[in-house]
Write a structure and sequence with these properties.
flat; 58% helix; 86 residues
Length: 86
């Protein structure tokens, strides 16, 4: 049965569905009652704040993405120049 979609589109939809099948069930199960008080060590905390290194890595990834976009936009012929602008 053909739906009119190319095979690559079906492959992308299938990979998305598999990711949802892995992620969603883990979020559906509620937290175990009393888990936050079961262990009382400093390393077993539910509080989280990113370290400076994690913030810098995120900043680097964002800056690198902007750089790649700028280089691609400048070097690829995405916009044609009219005779008046040339």
């Amino acid at each position: 049965m053909s739906t009119g979609r190319p095979d690559s589109t079906r492959a992308h939809l299938g990979s998305y569905a598999v990711r949802l099948n892995v992620v969603v069930p883990g979020q559906v199960i509620p937290e175990i009652r009393g888990l936050e008080t079961a262990y009382q060590e400093a390393g077993l905390s539910f509080q989280y704040a990113p370290s400076l290194l994690e913030w810098l890595v995120g900043l680097f990834v964002g800056a690198f993405a902007v750089l790649l976009f700028a280089v691609a936009f400048a070097s690829l012929p995405l916009v044609t120049k009219s005779a008046e602008e040339a």
